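Possible regression after last week's pipeline update?

I re-ran a chain I had predicted before the update to compare outputs. Posting the input and the new output here so someone can diff against the archived version. Not blocking, just want to make sure nothing changed silently.
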Amino acid sequence: MWEKAQDIFAMLMVAFTVFYLGFLLWRLYRGKYGPVRTVKAQVVDKYKLDTQTRVYGNLAKPARFAVVFCVNGKNRRFFVSEFSYGGYRKGESGTLKYRGDRIISFE
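New output (post-update):
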């Protein structure tokens, strides 16, 4: 009986791993090869995550920057570089081009 439980557990772990890897591959595909969407959007918010740089041994974890757009009545958050973060202004409206979770342009 114990061997049967171990077999079931092993099959569940394999199924979970396959599902998780499929999900990761789908996200990668969508972000790299998905359709480019062009929509009217407004910058709702922008913020810096991890306001303090954390140091792990000799490695520093850099801060992450996010910009939130209102797209078709829904908020979409995109992570951006520190360089492009300064170019977004709250309340600014324009045309947003994005693919998956990546901003192509905002004009």
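Follow-up from reviewer: compared with the archived run. The beta strands are 37-49, 54-56, 59-61, 64-71, 74-80, 93-99, 102-106. Marking as no regression found.
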